[in-house]
């Protein structure tokens, strides 16, 4: 990668930051108007699509391989649009997500302050960090074929886990007979969070695609940030905290089921 490519990557990073700031600002305004923090869930996937689109346009004038920027845009768009549509359908017409409601109630500050400092700023920072493989990798001069094949394979596995896991959970919740029960079927039998595992794989796959250059390799911070965000910040940790309070059998489910990486489940208690 030449000095010009590095300069182009810097421009992409700054441009991506601008997109994130503006987009999260719009989201904050919508959240305040609706008095609902859940809107950030729908915006999460769409924000990455906008960053990828802006990066593809900015990098057009550079020396990066045209195929790379369009491959990245396609991978991010398929993932981001599916996720945004799924979360929009799930949350539309529903009350505030209990995770966000508890966050707002426990903080003690105004809704606007909580929305800004506890939701939109952290998620905006996370979005920019996670998106670094896109913003830097779009300026790679070449596409490394074996990394492309491997990356797309990991991405596809992640998309499968996320999409199928979401569909299985939606179908489970739709059945009145399952009210109050713990979802432990399908992919949820092997991991408590197939959708979060899928997200991590998607972004690991995107990083692998761009890892053919040393700047691209350095953007490993992207999938690492996504995994930490999913497991330690607003993903699994908050989700499981609420589930343990509302689902009587959840403790046993935790005992016998892998927390993240799919694995063979243990036998239920009493066997």
Query: Any low-confidence stretches, pLDDT <50, length ≥5?
Result: none
Number of distinct beta strands: 0
What's the gyration radius in Å?
Answer: 20 Å
Number of helices: 12
Order of helices and strands: HHHHHHHHHHHH
- Characterize the main sheet: none
Instruction: Give the overall pLDDT as a whole number.
Output: 89
Give the N-terminus to C-terminus distance in angstroms.
59 Å
Percentage of residues in helical conformation: over 70%
Give the overall form: globular
> Class by helix and strand content?
mainly alpha
Query: Could you tell me the strand content as a percent range?
Result: under 5%
Q: Helices and strands in order, then pairings?
A:
Elements: H1 3-34, H2 39-58, H3 66-91, H4 98-107, H5 111-130, H6 132-137, H7 145-174, H8 194-210, H9 214-218, H10 221-233, H11 236-246, H12 250-256
